[in-house]
């Protein structure tokens, strides 16, 4: 790692690698600023911990004790502690768990900034939208084994190439769409129709509907996501 042996040169690595664990604790009475100042003092090239307070939305909690922080605030504090040493590699384990949607998006932007300035970010997450947005490469892990590895777009193209064309057809029977090229299946549940296919399936379905005088107002295509890849490779939901 970074040209060093983690076993024989662990002390040299500690100042160059940051880590935020999924579950951690600090002494209950330790204040936020005290924790950051302590960790900064241990780092050979620390960032200004006061700036991290502001960046991670902890300025108002500067003098709060660890015990008084909410789950999301504790999570943000541990991320700040992982970054205060200005690491070359940072491991973020379930970083956005417990954050509200607004804080989650702020965290994403900060990770993108870290990545863009050259920090290697190893992100452990169960949120597939998070991995799809932030990661240059994704490893799908099943029972401790990597079952797929590559850029998100490449994984989607390889493991979940199917497109879904969705629209509302009322009580019309549109099962005949299954005869079109690039259509694999048509499912109809009530008024909602889903056409499963690939390639130019959207254009073909739209043209066929118009040809028969059917112009659905809500015709749209649902593209596969990294979650579809995960489900296809592992056979269970991310939360399982």
Number of E strands: 9
- CATH-scheme architecture of the largest domain: 3-Layer(aba) Sandwich
Rounded to the nearest angstrom, the distance between the terminal CA atoms is 32 Å
User: Helical element count?
Assistant: 9
The major pleated sheet works out as:
4 strands, antiparallel
Question: Describe it for me?
Answer:
With 240 residues, the protein is an alpha/beta fold. A 4-stranded antiparallel sheet has the order 7-8-6-9, covered by helices on one side. It has a 3-stranded parallel sheet with strand order 1-2-3, with helices on one face. It folds into 2 domains: 10-135, 3-Layer(aba) Sandwich (Rossmann fold), CATH 3.40.50.300; 162-223, Alpha-Beta Plaits, CATH 3.30.70. It is built from 9 helices and 9 strands. It is 36% helix and 20% strand. The mean pLDDT is 87.
Describe the SSE topology.
Blueprint (H helix, E strand, L loop, with lengths): L9 H5 L2 E4 L11 H11 L6 H7 L15 H13 L5 E5 L7 H16 L3 E5 L3 H7 L3 E5 L2 E6 L1 H8 L3 E6 L14 E7 L2 E6 L3 H11 L8 E3 L3 H9 L6
Parallel strand pairs: 1-2, 2-3
Antiparallel strand pairs: 4-5, 6-8, 6-9, 7-8
Helix pairs in contact: 7-9
């Amino acid at each position: 790692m970074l040209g060093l042996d983690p076993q024989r040169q662990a002390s040299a690595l500690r100042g160059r690698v940051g880590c935020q664990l999924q579950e951690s604790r600090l002494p209950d009475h330790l204040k936020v600023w005290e924790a950051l100042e302590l960790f900064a003092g241990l780092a050979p090239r620390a960032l200004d911990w006061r700036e991290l307070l502001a960046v991670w939305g902890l300025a108002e909690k500067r003098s709060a004790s660890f015990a008084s922080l909410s789950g999301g605030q504790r999570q943000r504090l541990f991320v700040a502690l992982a970054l205060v040493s200005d690491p070359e590699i940072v491991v973020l384990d379930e970083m956005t768990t417990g954050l509200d949607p607004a804080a989650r998006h702020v965290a994403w932007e900060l990770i993108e900034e870290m990545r863009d300035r050259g920090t290697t970010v190893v992100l452990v997450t169960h949120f597939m939208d998070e991995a799809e947005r932030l990661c240059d490469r994704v490893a799908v892990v099943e029972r401790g084994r990597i079952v797929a590895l590559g850029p998100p777009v490449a994984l989607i193209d390889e493991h979940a190439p199917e497109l879904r064309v969705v629209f509302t057809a009322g009580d019309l029977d549109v099962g005949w769409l299954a005869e079109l090229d690039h259509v694999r299946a048509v499912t109809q549940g009530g008024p909602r129709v889903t056409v499963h296919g690939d390639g130019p399936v959207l254009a073909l379905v739209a043209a066929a509907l118009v040809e028969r005088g059917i112009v659905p107002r809500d015709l749209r295509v649902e593209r596969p996501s990294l979650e579809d890849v995960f489900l296809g490779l592992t056979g269970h939901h991310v939360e399982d």
